[in-house]
Amino acid sequence: MRILITGGTGFIGGALIQQLLDRGDEVLVYSRDSSHFGSEKLNYINDLDDIHTGDYFDCFVNLAGQSIAGSRWTEARKAELIESRVETTRALFRLAHRLSRPPATLLSASAIGYYGSQDDERLAESAEPRDSFSHRLCAAWEDAANQFEALGVRVCTLRLGVVLAAEGGAMDELRKSVQFGVATWMGHGRQWLSWVHRDDVVRAMLYLIDSPGLTGAFNITAPEPVTNRDFCEQLRRHRSTFIALPIPGFVMRLALGEMADELLLQGQRVIPRRLQEAGFDFRYGRLEEALPDMLLE
Q1: How much is the pTM?
Q2: Domain membership of residue 24 as a residue range
Q3: Total domain count for the chain?
Q4: Which of 38, 140, 261, 276 has CA atoms 20 to 30 A from the CA of 132?
């Protein structure tokens, strides 16, 4: 297959590219950073207009977007977060529209923030969302991706959970205090953490690329989410700590404002129903199975 990827230099994109290359696919990465060196099967481009009308791609994979946790959510920052996702998706649409043949498939990232906070409710893909900035951000992103359907493109939107791996990502923050012998959880700790191992994210993406009968939104989360405090307790089984205590919610709100509530003090209990019904098998379905790999034990 020939695949065009945006966001290919990131935490998920880099791992996906390696798997695509390992199985013999040809990959073109759209990146504003022109310092990367290509190879026979991997090349980089920093302007989509350089792609010729007669070029063909089997699939677009759209992972580009500024980090939602990068800084406090001012109104200007919110606009930047939406623009960084929607405009890249629209640019890909313009490319698909001018190609002689649009891609057969689009995989476009989204996030479980789409659902908003819903306490203990188990959220499959059919769940009704609740309004929040995270929902509006994800809904705008998905709406832009779904425009590809008008070109006859199969669209799969990826509602990603908290992606974890030993090499970085959210795991760096979640285990930071443990390195100093202190285990912490956020607020009351009962909020759900719908996590997923990065290996399973990549495997799910390959599964969707290779399954032409699958379309629509897919939750990319492990089948068994845990609460924030449960995550802390399971982490303590693998790392010695002197004390365990909460980080008070009011402290987090003072430091981070609205972002603290939506990303840290609230959560979603998300279930990957459509992937499981399609026959996808998670390698790391339970946190106790994943932690040894994430901690390089």
Answers
A1: 0.93
A2: 2-164+195-222+269-284
A3: 1
A4: 276
